Amino acid sequence: MLTDFTETFSYRLQRGILHYARDSREQWMVCRMPLSYKTEKGMEGVVHWAEEWKADAIMGKFEPDDDLQPFMDRGIVVIAQDHKQLFSTVPNVTSAYLTTGRLAADYFLDRGFRSFAFCGYDDAVWSKERYRGFRERIKSRENDCPFSLFTDKLTDDPWQSNDLKLLNWLQSLPHRTAIFCCDDRQASMVLSACFEAGIKVPEDFAVLGVDNDEIVDELDEPTLSSVNLDIEQGGYEMARMIDAIKQQDQPGSDIVIQPAGIVPRQSTNTFAAEEPYVQKAIDIIHDNMDRKFSVPDLLRHLP
After folding, report:
1. pLDDT, tens digit (0-9, with 9 covering 90-100), for 122-164
2. Cα–Cα distances in Å, from 281 out to 222, 276, 298?
3. Strands (E) located in 153-267
4. Is the Cα dihedral 264, 265, 266, 267 positive or negative?
5. Which residues, in sequence order, are CB contacts of 291 under 8 Å at separation 6+?
6. Most distant CA atoms of the chain, gap in Å
7. Could you read off the pLDDT of 234-278 as tens digits, one per residue?
8. Residue 116, class by beta-carbon neighbours within 10 Å (0-12 exposed, 13-18 middle, 19+ buried)?
9. d(Cα 266, Cα 261) in Å, to the nearest integer?
10. pTM for the full model?
């Protein structure tokens, strides 16, 4: 596995491989190769290592211009973790991106939101497709809703408070906007920027990510709601496909990971209402959830 092991996606893929190995009662050996190895040694170094190790298969976070043919020439099964775009020459570990976007749209629409935004990357297929599913589902249900898009190039740099592009975009959004982010990393940056700008979440904006990275999501303030993906099942199916290709000479096909639902946390713990007094009641109740609060208390603030 040639991938970024700081991401929960890679960890959960490995758990799926583990489950398959146990079910098949075969011995599997997995080498976890960080992306820095490819940066240092180049693709030639990765190919050489795989050949020396007598690897049966390699799953990698490959760049679009990486030459994968040398692996196949040596009988090594190649599976691409879609990083920026899907490969046409080898199977991909990918996801039902459009379905994920639609799920996020339905979640926000059902909670009464009528202003929407998407935050993602402009050079990653998974971000573009999640955006498309999100946008199209909103248009199909509420065609005249305000909608805003913010994209940036895919980068591993953490968000900095001097990043005025993201801050200015957030400050331009209408009050009560539901923001869907392409992944938890981007959503976590949005939460940080909201804190820097004095924007309250979920009172002003609701924020939703993807991947359900529990460490990141539970450490965020407020805790981050996220679309959970059935990544373990994807790892299981990937391992089974490798077996089929090696043992039965069957052609490989894309492994499409499905969304398994939304894990709600504090960042979306609100509803949006068109009637002003209803919205004020929701806000007051939300602000007083940590203490004893009764109907007479509420009526001190409302007619």
Report:
1. 888 999 999 999 999 999 998 889 999 999 877 666 666 667 8
2. 21, 9, 7
3. 177-181, 205-210, 225-229, 255-257, 259-263
4. negative
5. none
6. 77
7. 999 999 999 999 888 777 899 999 999 999 999 998 877 777 888
8. buried
9. 16
10. 0.87
